[in-house]
Amino acid sequence: MITLDETVPIPSRIGLDLIAVAAGAPLHLDLRLESVSEGVLVTGTASAPTEGECARCLTPVEGEIAIDLTELFAYPDSATEATTEEDEVPRVGRDGGSETVDLEQPIVDAIGLALPFSPVCTPDCAGLCPECGVRLADAEPGHSHEQIDPRWAKLAQLRQPTGDES
Fold this sequence. Notes:
two-stranded antiparallel ribbon; elongated; 3 helices; 8 strands; six-stranded antiparallel beta sheet; mainly beta; 166 residues
């Protein structure tokens, strides 16, 4: 068994349009690699900072994402390798006489699934006013706009004083 506690830069952006982990952001890995009968079992956590914008009010949102990782990498010529398709279970690779595991794709997949689809700055974010676009959290209490039903708009114009009240 080998333990790994290391921080590495993320090679490419991971995420959606509203929230993501930026390329080059620090990815903290706290992993345990164990040799089991069929391969190498990697367990542990990975965490990275996130950045994006609130889906309701479009203010910048920063946070941290942490994922749990459990992945089996099959040894060459093992029963697992022989009984599974190549894309079902990742394989242990050989690099100059030593065995390697590529954690990039499992981490990208896990972070992508853990990111919120609609991030919010606060759970009770009211968003933007649909009429004027002001952020409702910054607007005065009772912020509203008088709306005249378009079917009655012409009648409302008739109600307006013309200045000739005699």
